[in-house]
Structures are given as C-alpha cells and as structure tokens.
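hey can u check if this looks right to u? its 205 residues, i copy pasted from the old doc so theres a chance i mangled smth
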Amino acid sequence: MYFDLLIVFLFALIWICIITFLRLKKKKSLVYLIFFTIFYVYIVKVLDYTLFQFQSLILLKYFMPNLILKGQAVGKDINLIPLLTLTPQDLETSLLNILLLIPFGFGLPFITNFRMKKIVVIGALFSIVIEFLQLITGFMAKITFRVADINDVIFNTVGVAIGYILFVGFVRIYRRISHNWEIETHPILRYIAERPQIDEEQPMS
C-alpha cells in the first residue's frame, strides 16, 4: 500500500511539474492541458499494468531477502523470435497487446502535430522501453513476472497504428457532422475540429 501511495505521489508531482512548465513556459491553452492530462493518466495506467503491479514486487527482495516470489526464472523470460513462436493460446494476449496501445495512437495526435509515421515510431519505442524495463528488473532480481517478448512490441505497434487510423476517421467524421455547429464558442470542440493532421489532400503519413 505504501509503495502504491509513493507511486501515485511521484506521478502526481511529475504531472504538476509538466503542467506548470507547459502553462507558464510554453503558454499552452487549458484545453491542451486537459487533453495532455487525459493522455498522461493513460500512460501511467499502462505503466502500472505492465510494470508496477508485478515487477515492483521484485524490489521487495532487496528489502526482504527471505521473501519468496513465485515468478519465472531469468533465462526463460525472453523471446526474440517474432510471430513464429505464437500459439493459439497466445491469441488472447496478442489481442490485449493491440488493445492496450490503441489509445496511444488515438490520443497522442491530440497533444502533438505528428502524423502516422512518427506516432507509430514513438509507440513502438514506448513498447520497447517497457519490454526492456521488464527484462532489466528481471535480471536484477533473478526472477520475473513478465516476459520480454518481441511479439508484444509487434502487436503493441499494430495497436498504435490502429489507434491513429481511428483518430483520423473520428476527426473527419466529427468535422462533417459538426459543420453546422457553433463550435467557435466551444474551445474543446474547436480544438478537436482543428487538428492539423487531418488534411484531405495529404496522406496519413
């Protein structure tokens, strides 16, 4: 419980620092800060699901050497062979990996001007960092609860691409149905409608 409270406090402090910097130094609007906060909370939840909920238990071994943890031995926690090792039982995990990063591809364009190529690359790097941290924490404790799997990166990246495509479709549909709306008086509605990535004459990349 104390560890969870520490994590919440740490990420809340980081959020306050970032929001203060964006507001005072970068002069970002309140609407932008709202979208940024939503995306920030999502990132924290992803890290919580992929790292903190299980891998954080490994840290306890440094404070409680006699603690018995039932995880996988180091050496069995790495898979660098893409796709070929997948089994029918892995389909559910693969689907979850796709779903996990769809909000990344959908949400990041709301706080950046990046198009599909950069969004997908950033999403892939984000997934690689998570897998790397799972691997490092496993080596540190000689036991792990997560497998560093190249397939996770692949399906996470697919999720990011799907998320961006959904973003493009959402904004284009939104523009059409909101054509007669008075969005000029609603800053959030105007912010959505004016996303610079959506240009009917430009490809998504």
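Residues 150-177 form the longest helix (28 residues).
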